[in-house]
Structure formats: structure tokens, C-alpha cells
Amino acid sequence: MKDLVEKAEAIAARAYAPYSNYLVGAVVRARDGREFEGVNVENAAYPLGVCAEKTAIVGAVVAGYRPGDLAAIGITASPCGGCRQWLHEFGFDVVSFREDDGSIFSGTAGDLLPHTWNLPE
Ligand code: THU
Question: Helix, strand, coil: what percent of the chain each, to 5?
Fold first, then answer.
């Protein structure tokens, strides 16, 4: 999944992050091979900003993809706690990101968020 992380790194420059100057990229790969790019988009009202993982997943959803349809995501860095809940919702088999030491981590959404919260049925 190194290729997906490298694609995320290549698009991170398109992030709109004038407040943090922290550029994040994410690329989602659907089971049919289609890919969706995402970057973080910030706002002067700080809490309204959105993470790169979410914008990538939103793009896939707009195109018609649903939980179970998305196989993998590559991210420039470790996903935040809120994004881990999104990754759980969509059931990613593979989540890959660049670690601070330069290596690439790959695991399931469940590896990143054990004891996950689910809406009671
Ligand atoms: N950010 C992401 O895009 N993804 C994460 O998983 C962590 C944080 C963004 C949000 C904000 O625009 C910037 O990084 C600094 O927190």
C-alpha cells in the first residue's frame, strides 16, 4: 500500500490549510479500483475545518460508494480519532499511513480503533 501513501503525499500540496500550515492528503481506493482524493480544508472559524480522510470518503460517497465498497486508504500521517471512527464506519480492510520515523504502517480500521462504538440497533 506504499503506492497509495505516495499518491496521498503527492496531492497534499493541494490542501487548504492556511491556519495550521499542516498539509494532509488521503487517497481512497474502492474495491472496483476507482480512487478518490482528499485534502484537509480549513476555515477561519477553526472547528469547521475538515480532515483529508473525510473529504476523500465524501467524494466516494457522492459517487455512489457505500460502507463495504471501499477497500483501502492511504494517508500522509496517522489519522485522528474522529477519522478512525469514519474509517470504521466504511469498513476499510487496509489503512496505510506514513509514520513519523518514515516507515509505512498498514492495518485494518479495527486495528486503529478497537472496542469501537456502534449505534445500538
Ligand atoms: N488533519 C487531517 O486532515 N487529518 C487527520 O487525521 C488529522 C488532522 C488536519 C486537520 C487540520 O486541518 C490540520 O490537520 C491540523 O490539525
Answer: 35, 25, 40
